[in-house]
């Protein structure tokens, strides 16, 4: 089992923790990671965009001028796509963009993403992360001590509410509960930061 240093909120090492090989030392399946990211981005799309085709815009019932003899190009309707106020060619319509990923593939993609963060030494474990009050400056001081600029912070428990709200307005930082982590966020942020309680929860859920 791989060992990772456990840090406190000041950045000092206070111990070590062994990581579960079934989660943090799997074979990285890049095609599944790619599939999970594509599905995540697709599932975020609302699919509500809409525009009118030439059949739906108002007007244009009659031919604007006769077919021949005017010297102008033939036109069948003033609502054709080349006219101002005309319809849209291949107009977008509301649709469902969602992509389904099988549960086994989704779990393996998540494990692959976590393993890649461990392999790249971009995985930090904190003994605890608690703030007495909601204060952005206090959270910024913790991040400065840990030398974090762009990180995903995963927490567990009610005490993490102050942390989540304190980090909300800090650019480059995202907080998440264990049950909300996904492959896209793990790869998007440079460093994966997790508390010991959250790490235990991840190993319970995904082992």
Characteristic key phrases:
2 domains; Large ribosomal subunit protein uL4; ribonucleoprotein; single chain; 7 helices; elongated; ribosomal protein; Ribosomal Protein L4, Chain: A; 207 residues; rRNA binding; alpha/beta; Ribosomal_uL4
List the helices and strands and how they pair.
Elements: E1 3-7, E2 13-18, H1 21-24, H2 30-43, H3 103-119, E3 123-126, H4 136-146, E4 151-155, H5 160-166, E5 173-177, H6 183-188, E6 191-195, H7 196-206
Helix pairs in contact: 2-3
Summarize the structure in words.
It is a single chain. The chain has a six-stranded mixed beta sheet with strand order 2-1-3-6-4-5. The chain folds into two domains: 3-45 and 99-206, Ribosomal Protein L4, Chain: A (3-Layer(aba) Sandwich); 46-96, no CATH class. The protein has helices at residues 21-24, 30-43, 103-119, 136-146, 160-166, 183-188, 196-206, and strands at residues 3-7, 13-18, 123-126, 151-155, 173-177, 191-195. It is elongated. It is built from seven helices and six strands; from the N terminus they run E-E-H-H-H-E-H-E-H-E-H-E-H. Helix 2 packs across helix 3. The protein is 34% helix and 14% strand. It is an alpha/beta fold and 207 residues long. The mean pLDDT is 93.
């Amino acid at each position: 089992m791989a060992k990772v240093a456990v840090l406190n909120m000041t950045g000092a090492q206070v111990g070590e923790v062994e990581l579960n090989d079934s989660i943090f030392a799997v074979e990285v399946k890049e095609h599944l990671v790619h599939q999970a990211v594509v599905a995540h981005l697709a599932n975020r799309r609302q699919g509500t965009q809409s525009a009118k085709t030439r059949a739906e815009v108002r007007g244009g019932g009659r031919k604007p001028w006769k077919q021949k003899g005017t010297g102008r190009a033939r036109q069948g309707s003033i609502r054709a796509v080349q006219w101002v106020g005309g319809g849209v060619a291949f107009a977008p319509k509301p649709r469902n963009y969602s992509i389904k990923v099988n549960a086994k593939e989704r779990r393996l993609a998540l494990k692959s993403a976590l393993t890649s963060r461990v392999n790249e030494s971009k995985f930090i474990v904190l003994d605890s992360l608690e703030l007495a009050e909601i204060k952005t400056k206090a959270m910024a001081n913790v991040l400065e001590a840990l030398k974090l600029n762009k990180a995903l912070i995963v927490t567990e428990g009610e005490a993490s509410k102050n942390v989540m709200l304190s980090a909300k307005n800090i650019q480059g930082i995202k907080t998440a509960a264990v049950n909300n982590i996904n492959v896209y966020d793990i790869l998007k942020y440079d460093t994966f930061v997790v508390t010991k309680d959250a790490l235990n929860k991840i190993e319970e859920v995904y082992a």
